[in-house]
Amino acid sequence: xxxxxxxxxxxxxxxxxxxxxxxxxxxxxxxxxxxxxxxxxxxxxxxxxxxxxxxxxxxxxxxxxxxxxxxxxxxxxxxxxxxxxxxxxxxxxxxxxxx
Length: 99
Prior knowledge:
Blueprint: H1 24-78, H2 81-98
């Protein structure tokens, strides 16, 4: 900022109170543009979040199905196949009734 032999402060300019004002039409245009940008950003954010939730739910469903399959395999080791299938059907009925 300071140079040899120069003043430290910037030279002052004439005070013009209307210099920074914009017309009402320009302000409303700018506001409309800003609102549109915000809406688009929100929409993109919601899409991204929905995709993320879908992936999480798919992983959760896959994990649950795998656990259930392993559980039935353990049951099948101990019991007859037909009895395990009968238990599966009964559990599905109960699950449907609860939901």
